[in-house]
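Schema walk-through. Below, the input block comes first and the output block second. Nothing else is stored per chain. Lengths vary across the set, and this one has 166 residues.
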Amino acid sequence: MRATCLAKRSITLLLFSILLTGCVQLAPGYDKELYSDLTEVNASLLGFFSSVSMGTTKQSFPEREDTYHNLIGRVEALAMQSETRPIPDAEILEKINDYLIASDREILFEDSPPSVASLEQISGTLQKMRETDEDRGLTPGAVKIFKNGVVISMDQALTYEAFLNR
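--- output ---
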């Protein structure tokens, strides 16, 4: 029992030493250009949602098709850009997660920045919206539902990326 307690203390001390000395980067670095691009895409997305807020018809879908492709492509490019930034190596992440599990913490470090998952969610939502729009058009209620999902995910991505600017 005493050995287990000493081992936990040793791991804790090691982790805090690493954190304090700054030897290991626990999150990707702030990318000013990525954050700027995110805010630009966010404005484009909200402008697009505004343009379809009264609903759409299947017949008018060709007028919006290029906008969907452009927005989805830009969001996916940002997800790729976000994912290419360095993160701590797997061994360090595993040690941190082991410590968090031993401390009964539910938050674990993943192998990619949280903004990647948020941007992938936005892309998926836009793809579903595009399919619905093409198949039958969009009601104002459907637009609100799609917009809500995108706004929540974009807020998560922007919040995380802004947090990195510390």
